[in-house]
Here is the input.
Amino acid sequence: MNDDASPRPLRGVRRLALGALSGLLAGYAAIALAELVSAAVRPESGPVIAVGGAAIDRTPAPVKDWAIRQFGTNDKLVLQLGILAVLTVLALGLGMLATRLRLIGSLGVVAFGVVGALAATSRPDSTSVTDALPSVVGALAGAGLLYWLSGRLGRSRRAEDAAPDAVGEAEGWDRRGFIIAATAAAAASTGAGIAGRALNNSQGQGAVASRKGVVLPAPSSPAAPVPKGAALRIKDISPFMTPNGDFYRVDTALVVPKVDATSWKLRIHGKGVTRERTLTFDDLLKMPLIERNITLTCVSNEVGGPYVGNARWIGVRLADLLEQCGVRPPSKGGPADQLVARSVDGMTIGSPVEDVMDGRDALLAVGMNGQPLPFVHGFPVRMVVPGLYGYVSACKWIRDIELTTFDAYDSYWVERDWARKAPIKTESRIDTPKPFGRPKAGTVMVGGVAWAQHRGIDKVEVRVDDGPWEEARLAAEDTRDTWRQWSYPWKATKGGHTLTVRATDRTGETQTQKRTPTIPDGASGWHSVVVTVD
Ligand SMILES: Nc1nc2c(c(=O)[nH]1)N[C@H]1C(S)=C(S)[C@@H](COP(=O)(O)O)O[C@H]1N2
Ligand SMILES: [Mo]
Here is the structure.
């Protein structure tokens, strides 16, 4: 037993455990305080969001594709949970380290702040070094807390061994001090974190209110009514129009941008722009609006994949607006062959000016299926160009359009090895029966969708096992910019079978059997489904 009154330093496992706890508290304090500071800077500057965003920017295309495939729209949640898991392990480690090397452990926390700060200021949407503040302030507070807490644990055995005489009152285990400080830090951090979250959420309120206030004008050029026969009555087939809530979402935004339509502006400038313009949302709504059904597709969609959807868009015809700005396509002598759209979150998307101005209904869309754009789909304004994959056309949360050349500028995905130009490939998908389904023998309705935007679908064929190609029944065509449903009544016999589909577009081109990966310009190949007929 301890015969003098001075408290003894902590030893062994208990010391390590309390060290780990100190590290965890320090990490928690750092993240929570950073959240609060980010509310004063901007929500995207918080360290977890910034590191996540920087990770997305640097993820090799195959890994990004894998993540989208594995986790779908949850890919962002998985990424953030992953970052938090890594931070937790590191915080525990630094806390244990600090029980021996108090200063080094604490400096380790500062080092993570530096990583967060670098990530935040390197994001494409970062315009100010103040984006470093949340990480820096959080990390300094976390480091200070760790330094202080580990001090309460008393000197380590090694220090004690080195200078046994130096063990005095101050070096002992300050149980009361530790518990009070730890509890206070946990409470204060929770308070700061909750306040930061609330402030960050409330910053979107102006945008939410502005969206509620949008009244979409009637289009001056409405979409033709969808022909009755465009929607087949087949169970489990993709509906002809995809409801907003079911529409796929693909983007790099960890925080969905909340843009206030009342302060939103779009600038149009660059090569060959003789009348530069800056438009407000109201300016757009006052222009003649066209309404069109257009099927959007992601280049990351695997054969048979889910990243394709059809919606009714309303917006300004981009070609008309460009003409008003004096822009001419290359075929009419214009100097710019690339239109680069920039979003509020720093995305850059490059489309061929020729395609945008060739007569197709490329849109600056303000509405989707009768609603103002949902925030996740680009409120207040996004681009939609029939026939081009989203990453080369469909910029959400757009704020700037620059006319330039493909030689002069590589957009975000092109810098990451995706193709400069990417028209959508002719594809078809079996929606029903599902893979490994067990339909009953007899007539089984096989059905799905086929798309070849801006060329149109001419024919869909189905093959059972290695049998002959049989023509499927095509639903009526809405426009050549929309997908088409198809069905095929199959006389299913017992046993295992492989169903395969292929489409032919209006140019006479049949969907190729050749399998290519999504990178660099979209997957190709035939979609097959294996079923067992009972
Ligand atoms: N600002 C921004 N716009 C973007 C993207 C993005 O990451 N950021 N992704 C593009 C891609 S790859 C696709 S496929 C479409 C998807 O649009 P959706 O999410 O509305 O379906 O948006 C495009 N527009
Ligand atoms: Mo995409």
The longest strand covers residues 495-505. DSSP finds 13 helices and 18 strands in the chain. The pocket of MTE (ligand 1) is lined by residues 247-252, 296, 298, 343, 345, 347, 377, 390-391, 394-397 (CB under 6 Å).
